[in-house]
Amino acid sequence: MTTSSPWLAELATPSDTHRQRALARQSQLTKPAGSLGELENVAVRLAALQGTDTPNAEQVQIAVFAGDHGVCDEGISLFPQAVTAQMIANFVTGGAAISVMARQLGAALEVINTGTVCAPPLSAGVIDEQVAAGTANLARESAMDAQQLAAALAAGDRSAARALERGCQLFIAGEMGIGNTTSASALACALLAEHPTHLTGPGTGLDRQGVQHKAAIIQQALARHYQQHDDDATPLTCLQSLGGFEIAAITGALIGCAARGIPVLVDGFIVSVAALCAVQLRPALSCWLLFAHRSREPGHQRILDALEATPLLDLGMRLGEGSGAAVAVPLIRSACALHNQMATFADAGVSNADG
């Protein structure tokens, strides 16, 4: 594996032997077949991905990637870009939603600065992976150049490497970046050949007029992108042209996790767009992804459909940060506990459906 080209890494292969053994065990537990629904599927998938008869999600690694976006010059957000750096400080001092969730779960939390306009108010506890002081304005030029894209992807891959060193059993990527729903929507439109009006949502709280303006800016960005890249429309060119540093880093992290045999729990809209890009780059990655929740962002369902993904939760969340994925972790832990600790019919002396 080369950290400069994480998207080229060979991906790990789930264990079919352990999948079959997990299915066999589920059929012998003291319950009607299929009665635990998706919890059974989660346990079986994790058994195969972790290569074990006792799947586990106690060691959770959460990586929040932050970065700013030049497209904010177009007035597509209610908040100033200084908020990105301020929230980085909030993450590491424990005041953000994901910080609270990480403490509750006993999860490791790292915060990675991929490139902000303003320096964070503090640096202690922040991993510095600054590519540049935010991306360029994607409505008028490519968001990043090829070297910047490679640097962001490699930053994500290094996060996956740290997760492996810590014995991570389940990886969650989160994001923070004023303007990043605009970038993610533009990237999704390019990857799926969708019109911006189908995928553009309120982000941090835009009203109807604000959403219309945001869609118009995305359409402008797509027109520029297609003019420049019509003969070279690959996931990487789309990511370079329309993405954000934090979105590219998450793409690299997802591929890096799959290369190292680490299952990933995917958060909401923005992380799902990074997942879409990663899967289009490396289709075999899809089996390593579990999906936590359906975001309230209107474009998320289209992304989930493209990934053939069924999320565990639908709570109307749209915060980001990895918060929706963190909320789903107790469900996954319950799935593992039920799989590992329930008695079989033979253990309990209970007659099964076959008598």
TrEMBL record:
Active site annotation, chain numbering: 321
CDD domains associated with the record: DMB-PRT_CobT
One Pfam short name: DBI_PRT
GO molecular function: nicotinate-nucleotide-dimethylbenzimidazole phosphoribosyltransferase activity
Record-linked SUPFAM superfamilies: Nicotinate mononucleotide:5,6-dimethylbenzimidazole phosphoribosyltransferase (CobT)
Pathway: Nucleoside biosynthesis; alpha-ribazole biosynthesis; alpha-ribazole from 5,6-dimethylbenzimidazole: step 1/2
EC number: 2.4.2.21
Key word 4Fe-4S present: no
Family: Belongs to the CobT family.
Name listed for the protein in its UniProt record: Nicotinate-nucleotide--dimethylbenzimidazole phosphoribosyltransferase
Organism lineage: Bacteria, Pseudomonadati, Pseudomonadota, Gammaproteobacteria, Oceanospirillales
